[in-house]
Amino acid sequence: MIIVLKPGVTREQVDQFSADLESRNGVKVNAWYGEHSTVLGLLGDTAAVDIESIQAQDMVESVKRVQEPYKKSNRKFHPDDTVIDLGNGSVLGGGKLAIIAGPCSVENESQIADIAADVKESGAAFLRGGAFKPRTSPYAFQGLRASGLELLRHARQKTGLPIVTEIMSPAHLVLFEDVDIIQVGARNMQNFELLKELGKCDKPILLKRGLANTIEELLMSAEYIMAAGNDQVILCERGIRTFETMTRNTLDISAVPILKKHSHLPVVVDPSHASGHSWLVEPLAMAAIAAGADGLIIEVHNDPPHALSDGAQSVTPDQFRRISARIGEVVGVFGKELSARTDR
Amino acid sequence: MIIVLKPGVTREQVDQFSADLESRNGVKVNAWYGEHSTVLGLLGDTAAVDIESIQAQDMVESVKRVQEPYKKSNRKFHPDDTVIDLGNGSVLGGGKLAIIAGPCSVENESQIADIAADVKESGAAFLRGGAFKPRTSPYAFQGLRASGLELLRHARQKTGLPIVTEIMSPAHLVLFEDVDIIQVGARNMQNFELLKELGKCDKPILLKRGLANTIEELLMSAEYIMAAGNDQVILCERGIRTFETMTRNTLDISAVPILKKHSHLPVVVDPSHASGHSWLVEPLAMAAIAAGADGLIIEVHNDPPHALSDGAQSVTPDQFRRISARIGEVVGVFGKELSARTDR
Amino acid sequence: MIIVLKPGVTREQVDQFSADLESRNGVKVNAWYGEHSTVLGLLGDTAAVDIESIQAQDMVESVKRVQEPYKKSNRKFHPDDTVIDLGNGSVLGGGKLAIIAGPCSVENESQIADIAADVKESGAAFLRGGAFKPRTSPYAFQGLRASGLELLRHARQKTGLPIVTEIMSPAHLVLFEDVDIIQVGARNMQNFELLKELGKCDKPILLKRGLANTIEELLMSAEYIMAAGNDQVILCERGIRTFETMTRNTLDISAVPILKKHSHLPVVVDPSHASGHSWLVEPLAMAAIAAGADGLIIEVHNDPPHALSDGAQSVTPDQFRRISARIGEVVGVFGKELSARTDR
Amino acid sequence: MIIVLKPGVTREQVDQFSADLESRNGVKVNAWYGEHSTVLGLLGDTAAVDIESIQAQDMVESVKRVQEPYKKSNRKFHPDDTVIDLGNGSVLGGGKLAIIAGPCSVENESQIADIAADVKESGAAFLRGGAFKPRTSPYAFQGLRASGLELLRHARQKTGLPIVTEIMSPAHLVLFEDVDIIQVGARNMQNFELLKELGKCDKPILLKRGLANTIEELLMSAEYIMAAGNDQVILCERGIRTFETMTRNTLDISAVPILKKHSHLPVVVDPSHASGHSWLVEPLAMAAIAAGADGLIIEVHNDPPHALSDGAQSVTPDQFRRISARIGEVVGVFGKELSARTDR
């Protein structure tokens, strides 16, 4: 961390400030005296140093972090890719490209069972489906909740596909014991109390980027889970909010190579939520693979116009079969292999 | 709600779609046939109609909501201002301008007690202070938690000022029984499970706008609390995320008159978080009053450089006294009166 | 265009407003009377109807455009792809993928000539290079201007590569007579007087999307050029401004399939400006091809650290050769063929 | 300017790089060697140093500018406020609050003359009106152009009010010789060729902030005009683009105190364009004054529903009279005096 002091600060002030920084933060401070300004360099582990309390000092002109504030999720300290392997070919990371498919919401037994069978047949390695649904309006369908989880388990029993489903409160954790991957939605990316609880689980956590969160903040939220003891985190880019209105969100495709460079965690992309339009799912899925993604989350519904949520962005099982086939044709040229189920 | 159909849709398709809409949503559908396109008008209560499932229909060109999707927070249905009156002059709304002041984090007994006494003396009607702190980094100070609430109660005992403090999880509600106003932070504005629980309380809820949330979404989150039974909601504009980097966030000053027009709930502004710089607190506070705000949240710390969080945006008790005095000089010209404590 | 009127508007008011709309806009107005509101449908060519003057009417609740406001750039009216063919294999559109490569700024004779020879050798079909440079600071290098154009012509003479270079003022048009493709930079996307002048040229115009412009506004700016008589427009996505700071801009990859769907014009992507980092050029170029782009603009500099502008995002000729080879390996799987020079 | 080098850079590399920086930029370089990294401090005038070419260096970790890159517009070097005084009480800056009022577009002789007389009567100190109109669509009304300027001069002759009107191309400068203040619109804020030409004029330039431009970029565009010789620049905040859709743009009210702190130039606010709604003009005008603005630009039209552009945001002469009266009641409490015409 580099601290630039304002002109006119005396040597005594610098010494006192340096001593204060050292005692409060357990770091070593080097002072470099220039003609017009003095620069302090903080050596040691500065991840926990509060940059704002330093900026609040009258004598400070500006502060710059040199070291990244995330450690456990940082590729510098863990060069090898984290691989999430749930068995029978359902693998995320390590050269595999996995498709996570299923409806936005679980609606009834036959809906989720039929879609699960269909997407497995077409090449999905994981089944997604929402039981607890975050909806902007309190008057909209809120999900089947506990009974939705039950229906997901039922679909897994029939198909073997591991389940990915969203949690909305630490109070519901007891219901998620039999879920394979727990998803944290975009609106809860900085629900830190939830992240801390998930850090105590021994299940993989699929963490979606918030609508207005930076890439660094996404990594810091992964860090919350990992600092609490859970190393199995999957990062998900699902679009950010911008001024553009033709898409529901703006897919930040650059986040994929940046996350892969700075972190060892698997990165998946959700082209359905990013665009909000089913016809955009295929081109954005292609772009995600080309940019280096380890997986895709694709919403599939057997009857989009009657879906209880997010119908506009769901593809039909037929469309999914074609998209999945295209993915199969393309992954090889980008050095990946499709995560394929071995229990079919 | 107005639905524009694509060209070439037959009368039979229109009839079937209309019947479907009527039976699913309990509305009445009028069809108007034009030369090139057909337009459907939905009459009745469309707040719960899922706009996305309609957009998913192949025959639909576009959908437009005419009616606002919020009802309980809507001024149309409740023309009179909601007033939050906690006694002894601590009033929000109804022509009063209230100042909520205090440190970002509660740090120790003397800190919070001293600041409370200072800000009361200078004109604050409420005491704020964070016990549970949402921090981007898991390595940063997370607040004193339960013991911070204890220190706040102690400060209230000494000064009489009602306490405003943030909740981060429904699991903590039991600790907040003796808090006067519960705050929902920007990162939890769409933590819907938390909102539902707060809807069951009989305390006022101060709801902060999320960093990337629209004004309508803020009203929909208020609606969550109100639909669950709690009518005492205070709305807070605290800046949104934009490309501008000179301020921490961009204060959306237009949100103030828009919220006051569309809702009957009190509206407060947080110039400290909006700007991130203590020197901007005064001009932004002035702008907020001029735009029609019912209250201000101002961070005050007796030693900003050593604050455990957000020091850069905190003013000192001396600066606060001057700002508060300026507010007192200005409110009258905007038709408001300063909320003044009667127990001093 | 659909106009929703406020409740309580009388039939007489509707008749008068409709007659007014018809006489002012040359359209036909159909009125549909509902229980709570009246809806007007405007039939005919509404591209020139001023939506804002309608919104200003007291009796108007809201207005919705059904028809796209762009016509000449609209694929609906011109289903076939526009192809820009400058001969000898330098082709944009129609199943070809063209690479436009070269330095941000032309700096001297050997620099541009050497880079031109290098990029041609590696597979570029066009040479780019800036002679007039839009710089944020008046104190930064402003380009070699007229003599830069001269050096570009010299490089074309040696390599045969058609030249793409940016214009900044209609007053400079006389200097661009011998340029092959004239580029309009992001900051001038809505410099309408410049667009009108370019509409009178018989050269292809490469139009870059503005930093805060919507996809529809990009098409409307293309429409300015086309409405003035020039049908040869190439659209360029180069990143938009968002809150994310890890990249210079946020590449809006969704713009590629959306532009290809709504318009018949060729679409190119500039991964260099979008990201601002040379290491991101390759993954973003891959994503652009996968999303359906017709071309790529890549900054190449023989000595990035000493480039007079934008060095951080330039790749070296060696890096470019590798990226170009990767592009050659990948285009086939996306149904395209690399635009290859026949004069080598 | 502070340059942090990557770990492992040798002393020799540092020496060579430092020598290179000194010879290229005319600055002095101090090197401070730390345990893990080396930091270079550049002393002297770094305004023209190209930060990007430094970032392109392999050995560079990051670069931080300490000195602001703007000089002539910087309050540090010109502590006194710039005052624009056009005589007879039409004054911007120096404790005066001036209202610039008039229609979006000049439409005909009586329209502009009547509005001019009305707004003067109500307290405006300047007359605005568009003759050259930047419109998103080539099919929309483009302004009366030269004859619009003629009508503005006519209105000035009758009322004495100085004219503010927008220029769109350097080629039109010859027509603007008799204009009092030349406006640069938001879309042309970085039309650098235009700015350079305006720097050669001896007229005040009202420079509007671009939709996606930072406060620093606005100051850099002012710097273009000033570096070319024209010191009379007025800065205008008129809203930036964000995700919020309830307003046309988001008024960045914080820009007002920030511009006043960092620059000596007068700052005006345009609440009409910022909001896009006439009912928001008054509250936003109040907020602007409270935040420290030196002036307001308010669109006034005698018949908003039939305005040829931007009707929805125009107030009527009656509404303007009331707003102007409110402004008169409020300015005093913020230490300003209304700029009042002495020739009435």
Overview of the molecule:
The structure is a homotetramer of 344-residue chains. Chain A has helices at 11-25, 51-55, 109-122, 146-159, 192-198, 215-227, 255-262, 271-275, 281-291, 317-331, and strands at 2-5, 28-33, 38-43, 60-64, 84-85, 91-92, 96-102, 126-128, 163-167, 181-184, 205-208, 233-237, 267-269, 295-299, 337-338. The first copy, chain A, is an alpha/beta fold and 344 residues long. In chain A, strands 7-8-9-10-11-12-13-14 form an 8-stranded parallel beta barrel, surrounded by 6 helices. The model of chain A has no long low-confidence stretch (mean pLDDT 93). Chains in contact: A-B, A-C, A-D, B-C, B-D, C-D. At the A-B interface, α2, α5 and α6 of A face α2, α5 and α6 of B.
Total count of strands of chain A:
15
Strand content of chain A: 15-25%
Question: Based on CA inertia axes, which overall geometry of chain A fits?
Answer: elongated
Low-confidence stretches of chain A: none
Task: Return the string of H and E elements of chain A.
Answer: EHEEHEEEEHEHEEHEHEHEHHEHE
> What is the first-to-last residue Cα distance of chain A?
54 Å
Q: Can you give the helix content of chain A as a percent range? A: 25-40%
Mean pLDDT of chain A: 93
> Going across the major beta sheet of chain A, what is the strand order?
7-8-9-10-11-12-13-14
How many DSSP helices of chain A? 10
Task: Indicate the multimeric state.
Answer: homotetramer
Pair of chains with the largest interface and how many residues each contributes: A-B, 55 and 55 residues
Q: In terms of structural class, how would the helical and strand content of chain A be classed?
A: alpha/beta
Largest sheet of chain A: 8 strands, parallel, barrel
